[in-house]
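User: quick one
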Amino acid sequence: MSDETPTPAPPPGRAAWISEDWAATVVGLVLLVLILTGVVSKGVLQ
Amino acid sequence: MTTSSTDDVRPAPTPVNETDALAPEPDRPGAVSWPAVAAALAVVLALAYLTKYLDKNVPEWLADTSLARIAKSVEYPVYAIAIGLLGNLVLTATGVRDRLASAFRTEFFIKTGLVLLGVSINLSLLVTAAGPAIVQALLLISGVFLFAWWIGGRLGLDDRLRALLASAVSICGVSAAIAAAGAVRARREQLAYAASLVILFALPSIFLLPWLADVLGLGDAVAGAWIGGNIDTTAAVTAAGALAGEDALRIATIVKVTQNALIGVVAVALTAYFAYRVERRTDAARPRPVELWHRFPKFVLGFVAASIIGTVYANSVPAAENTATQAVAANFRTWFLILAFVSIGLEFRLTALREAGWRPIAVFASATVANILLALALAAVLFRGFTV
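Assistant: Done. Structure below.
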């Protein structure tokens, strides 16, 4: 079935690999807090 | 689902995870060229702005023409991808695309957009008012995923591509494929291919499903559940639901959001399956449990956290204030999704499609047909007599 099941070599720069997921989480949640607290209002990015 | 014994002598593919998936191939190990990153970001933002501009103005420009209805139905993902592809052609022709590729951060953009999407999902609403949607989502995702996985195996697809296609067609398109890619370490070409197929099949579905629902005489609730369970991208579901009517749109949205919420469950299951079964080498030690954590797409935590925060917020402020705040969050989410779709167009590589061949298309098409039929049956049973 599988025609390619490669060795799970550690990806180069693993720290960076993990950090992008966290970056999206942090950026998303920080934006959310700014929106919910009214720091960012309706006029932004319309 | 077997593991090849020849994998020892094969080089590991480029993992499609986070930065790896998006870093430019030629200079990945080198230092970051900040002028190039700045220039690339400017390109992405300019194309995103153009997308927003067209999304806002094209319906007005074509309002009095025979294309008015189509123009109104076409949503920003269509413009974003088309503009991204055009930008791709221009940048490739001028020989600068690879130097700018560092800012084509499809995954970061879409994951941030999905975290923001979480705030619009009220957990209590899902539990109390969307029982049928949850049942349908569970049955539909399981059935369609397993069918796509099975037929992908019959046609000899790589396990990672099978996982991507099965996730994309059964859950919520590109975002599910990205979550699956993080879990199974798929190659960036595979993710690009899965994303291309999602877009390829989603666009006609926007128009086809509402039309079929009308032809079949489906009620609003059944039509909405059918649309929400079928079309892969949330934006396309919204477009199709709107064509089918306001009540159908409400149900379609609930069903789709329920499927979105299950991304994490599938990601964890795929992580476990690939860590313990697919990638397990005969000479390798059993993967440690911590590997599950390493492969778990962390943005799912942000998605769930945003959903909890949004639920608490909605229950603690007046409805009008919550609606206004949700609109701001939705606007930001749209911008991030536009950036993601533009980046998908910019990253698109025809060579990936050529190398993949016809089999993934056959798998995706077959799974889509299975999805249509199973979703129709489930919607007809679960939403019969349901009032919106």
